[in-house]
Design brief:
By secondary structure, the chain is α/β, with parallel strands linked by helices. The chain has one domain: Rossmann fold (3-Layer(aba) Sandwich). It is about 50% helix and about 10% strand. It has a six-stranded parallel sheet, sandwiched between helices.
Length: about 350
């Protein structure tokens, strides 16, 4: 499996459109800066999209689903069967992200990149399995190099489908019992932090369960330490298929000139890995919300960004990012449609 596509440059950011958007914000009928981050978001989107009329629609949401061998070590409060059951729930329209996608008028796609159980043919679900879940990374790598390449490519392919349908904003979601353990291990390796600093309850572990989860990760990270040299090494040894797919999706979206709205803990770990691989990617990522999962703050700090929302959410699926879409819609609507002082005949300040 070739990784060469990852080396392709990202779409250029238009500094001229950024300057034009900043100038327009200074002419709109409001005190400068009075719309706060809504102004910054509009300017950022204008620069990324290379237009003086930025927009976010059509929005495309892709949930990547996969299972994790590390659940064998008792790190999750839910059984692994839930992953396939939730994929079926997505297909039926009963999950939180299904409801939010309908509310937004956004296209929702689910990609099975490696569930342990059979998914079958379901409406809105694309089967692109790498394997039937990763291996337990306690004493072996979660995946081999070829599997990593396939998982990254699944993210690339999902973005390519969206680009063909004209998407202007990408949201990646995740589903996979045990994936907070993999995401935490990835973050620990990327940031050089101890597992006890980032471990959280995930699907609902108690204090004892969190301590056990942290200990498993410490053992695993110690076992793989010599091999964790690059972001790709880290994804291969302690990551998950859906985490790698998200990382690939963020990179390809930026290569295609499409900004991404990043969801919570799992998605941010994937985004962090992608940014460590391609630092210029950071400009293309908007962090949607502050996850209630304890380790999220450390990842956000490392990326040098501030999330748009803080609602105590930790569901995953892309749900926090979906909730933030209307903020972006408001930002671009104000930017595009407010009157300037000259148009409104309003006197400007000094």
């Amino acid at each position: 499996m070739s990784f060469k596509w990852l080396e392709s440059p990202l779409h250029p950011v238009s500094t001229s459109h950024q300057e034009q958007a900043l100038a327009r914000q200074g002419q709109l009928t409001k005190p400068p800066g009075s719309l706060g981050r809504l102004e910054q978001l509009a300017v950022q989107l204008a620069a990324l999209q290379g237009t003086d009329q930025p927009g976010v629609d059509p929005v495309r949401i892709v949930v990547f689903a996969a299972d994790h061998g590390i659940v064998e070590e008792g790190v999750s409060a839910f059984p692994q069967a839930v992953t396939v059951e939730m994929v079926k729930n997505f297909s039926r329209g009963g999950a939180a992200i299904s409801v939010l996608a309908r509310s937004l008028g956004a296209r929702l796609e689910v990609v099975n990149v490696g569930t342990a159980g059979e998914v079958g043919e379901l409406q809105g679900v694309i089967n692109q399995p790498v394997a039937q879940g990763t291996r337990s990374f306690l004493t072996q790598s979660a995946m081999d190099e070829a599997q990593l390449g396939s998982a990254l490519a699944a993210g690339r392919d999902a973005v390519a489908r969206g680009v063909k349908e004209g998407m202007r904003l990408f949201i990646g979601g995740d589903m996979g019992i045990g994936n907070t353990t993999a995401a935490t291990a990835v973050a620990c390796a990327l940031l050089g932090l101890d597992a006890t600093e980032l471990a959280g309850p995930g699907t609902g572990l108690d204090e004892k369960g969190v301590a056990h989860k942290a200990e498993i990760m410490k053992q695993a990270l110690s076992h793989h330490q010599a091999a964790l040299n690059t972001p790709l090494d880290i994804l291969q040894h302690v990551g998950g298929f859906e985490i790698a797919a998200l990382a690939g999706a963020y990179i390809h979206a930026a290569q295609q000139g499409v900004p991404s709205l990043v969801d919570g803990f799992i998605a941010t770990s994937a985004a962090l890995a992608a940014v460590k691989l391609k630092p210029e990617l950071a400009d293309w990522l908007l962090l949607a919300h502050a996850s209630a999962e304890p380790g999220h703050r450390r990842m956000v700090e490392a990326m040098g960004q501030a999330p748009l929302l803080d609602l105590g959410m930790r569901l995953g699926e892309g749900s926090g990012a979906a909730v933030a879409v209307n903020l972006l819609r408001s930002a671009v609507d104000l930017h595009n449609n407010m009157a300037t002082f000259a148009e409104a005949g309003v006197s400007e300040g000094d």
